[in-house]
């Protein structure tokens, strides 16, 4: 009987029509690594993300994330508790969720919060009855799934490689090259209650253990598989597989997954072999006649266990991102363009991936596709920057850290540029490090190179002419960062790294005066350190982000926070020894402070109101006012659905105000309400809760706004109670008067005025005591 492949299409629906401050995740489930069966669904883990498909409707995919109720991100393992009909989810942080059949989530954070257990690595998640046994770098922990609490942790701080549950409440634990057995009714937290388990085969090279029926199976690192009756020292050889194969434990039996086949071991040591390649995981319920397989990039497969199969799986197409990495992003032509990264002081060898999203469909250019299409035997790795032509959304270039410059056109990679055929020089044979690429107003592509003399290049696409040059202060530096080109042709490029451990980084500002073939008329400045109005250095070490705002101020994000240079276009013509930069100051005398002081700012985008959306390393997402002197909003994991407080990149769709947030754990969107359109009739605005009752938490919310609307709340006599300007899609009012008490029962009015459309709307809500 042939294998039945479950193919499914992941459709990521944009939330463009929803303006209520909506968060959304756009996560990759490109590589399925784990599959578990439940009565009605198959739950699977891919790219650290949990998803499910219905058995009767496998094309309907549901992704689970923090927005849908999970407490964390980066899932390492899942297992199903049949007795309780609950899914146990283990995260890289050591956090645990229990997802019940009703959809409720019970969080167990004891392992995560235990500062004495440093290593949260998980080697095995085994569910037996109403308990889950977790073996990992922290030891062996026992979780009561029904009550949602950790009962005990044995061998604390020891890397427990595997665990098996035996009859008569016996536990088998493998660590430090030895097997130990203990009885759960004893005090197993006392190491002396564990005794060495005698076995006729050497345990030094053991990699996995698992019980099935009345037997224990052992997988050795060389691929040999043995079985022994429970509590018996005599093990019998069963078969051998390739070294590096894995043992997957399911209620129905054990699966040995090798590169070209899987072996199913049922009760009574019945072994069935299936000629199926590239199975990463297999699972089946206790009485199931079907195994569900995790097939990597081929998704999920269903395999009848009654017969073997020689059929090969078919590829599954996903309409989703190719991975969850977003080192650089930009939004242009109504599309999101993303390069996955990574960048480092040396080559990172991260498989190349470029993702393009038009709001409905994803196009992924992965390492294999690019290498096979272009040919030449190179490696497509470390894609770190992207630039798109102004005329053609399908024509763009990708800079890589070590493999040169790649050109994409008409939906295909078409060329690779490196030494020999261009001005792109190599710092080592076959090693061309391209970053900081951007187009000027004439359609010429500019870029920078790492660790070479002529480390600035320009490519005139129309004439196919290449130019390369450098300036003395920055020749041979290890890496530039990003490039921003001003309307007057000035180019600002931050410096990420110099060789030899030098702390001199700063900024290069230059203008070739339209003569790239000659540097004699060039203007340039190397700015090692920006200064304040008194001439004192700001003290920044690295500038990570650049953004020019609507007033011509260049805002920079650094290791000390954010600062800006007003009238950036005049810096090259200035005679001052160093450009003056302003660090925005908040508060009031005498309690003044620098905004985002000592917060590492990783990216900045400017919205239509000239406010700044600021991504940080470890502090989440900020919305700052036009002059950055006020924090208008702060979103973090602790107070929002944000996937991670570590923001790598940002991109803003100026048409509808959708902010793309590339976090360390994947991509999110947030509807900022700052689109270029207006709310013509203001029909989407509403107030909730309405009425505001005594049992409701304090306050009402005015939702469905565009940013920049004037909001006034009055009582029925016209007395003004509250006034503000919307900075996003929602405005909150605590419904309290000047005395701190909730306003009296009655009807209140909300007047909304949109200066852009010159439209207004009046709403009413009630307060009931």
UniProtKB/TrEMBL annotation:
Name residues in a coiled coil. none
SUPFAM superfamilies reported in the protein's UniProt record: NHL repeat
- The PorZ N-terminal beta-propeller domain sits at 42-195
Highest taxon listed in the record's lineage? Bacteria
Q: What InterPro entries is this protein classified in?
A: PorZ_N, WD40/YVTN_repeat-like_dom_sf
Pfam short name (any one): PorZ_N_b_propeller
Query: Would you tell me the protein name for this molecule?
Result: Putative secreted protein (Por secretion system target)
Which organism is this protein's natural source? Porphyromonas loveana
